[in-house]
Amino acid sequence: MSRRYAIAVVVLLLAGTAGCAQGQEYAVPRDVCGVEVQSALLKPLLPPGDSFKQRKTQEGGEDITGCAMDVDNRRELTFQTSLVAADLDPLQVKSTNLLRAGNPQKADIGSDARIADNAAMAYSACTYKGEQHRYVVELWMQNPPTDVDERRKELTLFIAAYLPAAQKAAGCTS
What we know:
The protein has a single domain, classed as Protein Transport Mog1p, Chain A. Helix content is 32%, strand content 34%. The protein is built from 5 helices and 9 strands; from the N terminus they run H-E-E-H-E-E-E-H-H-E-E-E-E-H. The protein has helices spanning 3-20, 39-42, 90-93, 95-100, 148-170; strands at 31-32, 35-36, 52-60, 64-71, 74-85, 105-106, 112-115, 119-128, 131-141. A 7-stranded antiparallel beta sheet has the order 3-4-5-9-8-7-6, covered by helices on one side. A hairpin with a 3-residue loop joins strand 3 (52-60) and strand 4. The longest helix has 23 residues, at 148-170. It is globular.
């Protein structure tokens, strides 16, 4: 094998492995649906890719807001926040969705929470415009990472930080 041929083979191999070692080539946002978050808590929930886009998914006035995060034009994360009546159990309402998300487990976040394999949901009791409500946050993953234990840990850390920040931004006080 000629030296020139060997160099060409090495260059091709290196170019091929560089494409496989794809990282997050986009900037991880500092907000989710307009609520400031530590990008270090959000980063592990987002996959590698080249492009990122955050967009609103619904307009519900004060009661419901949502947004989605796309990486390389594929939806990866969906967020929803809602303000519900104080006597409504949002975890019960979404129990089927949480079961579909995989093995929901109780978490010590807010008034109550569940962390599933591909989702997290938590709520806190709060006062909004002088009336008692429950403020609910949800996070749904479309293409979750394969390490379930690590993913659950990252979902828990994120939702524990996001719930009080989103609640405060919505004007729902404890």
